[in-house]
Design goal:
Order of helices and strands: HEHEEEHHEHHHHHH
CATH class of the largest domain: Alpha Beta
Strand order of the largest sheet: 3-4-2-1-5
Strand content: 5-15%
Shape: globular
Largest sheet: 5 strands, mixed
Helix content: 55-70%
Radius of gyration: 21 Å
CATH superfamily of the largest domain: Beta Polymerase, domain 2
CATH architecture of the largest domain: 2-Layer Sandwich
Structural class: alpha+beta
Length: 241
Amino acid sequence: MDVDPLDQARRLARDRFPGALAVILAGSTAAGRVTASSDLDIAVLVEDGDETCRETIRFEGRVVELFIHTRAGLAELFARDVAARRAVLQAMYAGGLVLVDKDGAAGRARALAEADLRQGLPALDADTVETKRYGLTDAVDDLVDAADPVERVVIAGSVLTGAAELLFDHHRAWTGGSGKWLPRRLLEADPERGTALLEGHLLACTTGDPTALAGAASHVLDLTGGPLREGYRRTWQGAPG
């Protein structure tokens, strides 16, 4: 008989974290996309004085990613995720399933997460956008010119990432980090342009034809100020003393 991952998560919370203030089940299980091999992503809020840490364990045969935070540690990590333009933890607390909520702690943590998500992101400064445009322009040129198939695949990844970063900033959208979250957040931020980038990347990697990816990335450049080659200049300021 298949084991219900939600029941597993509840047992883990009861057995391993009996004193937790809040336990939140996030990830694919909470979103209804669970498979037999899916891991469990569980955020655990504990009292100040305990540890803030990340830990991977195996529970009843299933891999579990634990994100354990004190209240002070959670506030610090929320701030770090905002600065990194990721909001990964905020998404976990805002959209996950509450398994434990002691005296409203889960609700308060969720409210903080939702406030960060509602506030959104400030625009990147002009110099940063210009540098990203320059980097993407160079990567697109390299992609079109690449003759080596291995180099082409690597460059295609750089083009996808660079275009995604500019597109996220254009929409003031959270990036969600890397890996599987990049395509997911990219499609949420801009379904049309995101699809063009992802399908172009797939074609470049599977067929060796970079045309679609180069075109999609060029459209992102046009949207964010245009390609940038000559005229780009930066002065090294040195490390702070």
